[in-house]
Amino acid sequence: MRRTTINQAPRTPSEDREGHGHYFTPARAKVRGAIQFCERMGIEYVKRDVFRTFNVSTRQGHEFLRNDSSSRRLLSDPHQKESHGRPRFISAEKLREMERILQEEGIEARAMTWEQLGYEVGLECTGETVKNAMGSMHCRKCIACKKGWVNEKTARDRKAWAQVMKERYPKPEDWYRVRFSDEVHFGYGPQGKLRIIRKPGERYCPDCIEEDKEPNGKDKKRYHCWAAVGYDFKSDIHFY
């Protein structure tokens, strides 16, 4: 006997969920979000119409609104406690405490190792754990700058001096007789650069700058070089 097939209409999402009673997170978020929006904007609504719009039964819709703890995805809600995954080893309070130490205790605190920083707030864990946790706050280790950013007064004075010199010598040939000099210091062996903890944008923060101290005997034995350049001029390099 010849077989025939019967074309059936596609099933709706509500029909597919018959007998299961489980709704995915987007359905919960849509129902609650739509109702919160209407209440915030002062729009009159009927809850049953909202439920019907998102193919949610009346009983389950009221369950969404009544049991806030059943929502698994409302990360933008500051009052919603996150319950996903394994609890963090370092709490948010400890992270804020370590951040406070970095901001208030100066370069000595920033120069601590990750393990030492965790010890300051009572943590008993590896430095790698502290590093990963503080990395979520964009903290990282980097080499401390040795030159500070000029203050506003110095910047104004330099700008004023540059404007005066530009007015005094307006033509390029006026600068042919000017010489610019500089010096550099270096030595052999380990440099011993200081590494500190900071965030992006804090490079020239006063607490992130290493102050140069009076050189000790070893530093005084370093090489020092001086040279000058100008228009069609280059001096010899002088070592001392």
Question: What are the main properties of this structure?
Answer:
240 residues, single chain, four-stranded antiparallel β-sheet, two-stranded antiparallel ribbon, elongated, disordered N terminus, 12% strand, alpha+beta
Quote the beta fraction: 5-15%
Q: Compute the number of helices.
A: 10
Helix content: 25-40%
Order of helices and strands: HHHHHHHHEHEEHEEE
Main sheet specs? 4 strands, antiparallel
Oligomeric status of the shown chains?
single chain
Structural class based on helices, strands and sheet pairing: alpha+beta
Radius of gyration: 34 Å
What gross morphology would you assign? elongated
For the residues shown, what is the average pLDDT?
Answer: 76
Could you give the topology of this structure?
Layout: H1 13-16, H2 25-41, H3 47-53, H4 58-66, H5 92-104, H6 107-110, H7 114-120, H8 127-135, E1 140-143, H9 152-168, E2 179-186, E3 195-198, H10 217-220, E4 223-230, E5 233-234, E6 238-239
Antiparallel strand pairs: 1-3, 2-4, 4-5, 4-6
Helix pairs in contact: 7-8
